[in-house]
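Bench log. Compound arrived from synthesis this morning; before running ITC I wanted a structural hypothesis for how nicotinamide-adenine-dinucleotide sits in the protein. Inputs:
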Amino acid sequence: MSFDFKGKTVGVTGAAGISGIGFAIAKKFLESGAKVFLCDLKEQALQEAQKELSPLGEVKTYVMDVSKADSVRDVFAQAKKELGYIDIFVNNAGIYPQAFVCDMEEELWDAVMNVNLKSIFLCARECSRYMKEKGGVILNAASYASLLGSAGSGAYAASKAAVYSLTKTLAAELAPYRIRVNGYIPGVIKTGMTAGVIRSKGEELVDAIALHRLGKPEDVANAAAFLASLEASYLTGTFIEISGGKLCVQNPDFPWKQE
Ligand code: NAD
């Protein structure tokens, strides 16, 4: 499906890594005619991403720590000044540390909550200021772990379960301003974040997926573009799962193993 985002300005957090979901989302919006700003902690990676994406359209980059109110506030003000009205904002940045809950340091727990969850509060608060005039769209990165929990990354799962809940509340609170708030639930997508787990459990992961392949960042970008599009104008407070049918039945590998 092709989309038309001409005249729109889109911000994406966690968008610096060329192999990541945020970069693919930014690329999809650019290809569909939008102006895009990429936000990330990593300055050099942002520059490389900008170089890669610039041939497709207008791209700005801002160093932003999504977990810090001042940083978020400054970037929104700067983006508004340089790019105009902010129409769409994608809260995509996240971290996924591996640790059993009861073995975790408090600092790591706080970092997960701040980057994955508090960031959504901070950015939505700025969006509510900058999108009130003409409405807009906010998209939040949830996770399959929002629904199921995850042994070995419980803080991550708890933060993403809260993202699920917060998305629904924001959808209701911002509806009077014509701001739609939705989320996407990636299953297992091949990015830097999942490289380790794919290396150690590749085959097992694929067996849990009905379509029997891992996801690509572009699979998520297509869903994000749909959620932000006019075609989705009656969707708010909802999620698209992009998982290839992960655990849609107890035994998704069974049909693949028949003679
Ligand atoms: P990734 O690690 O490739 O990218 C995450 C990006 O977030 C990086 O560029 C990183 O620099 C940035 N970031 C981290 N902390 C930040 C901070 N404090 N401020 C600003 N930027 C920060 O990850 P990805 O796989 O592309 O995941 C994108 C989103 O999708 C995440 O929220 C992740 O939890 C979610 N998700 C991914 C998968 C998957 O299979 N890859 C599955 C479920 C959910």
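What the model suggests: The beta strands are 9-13, 35-40, 59-63, 88-91, 136-141, 179-186, 239-242. DSSP finds eight helices and seven strands in the chain.
ITC booked for Thursday regardless.
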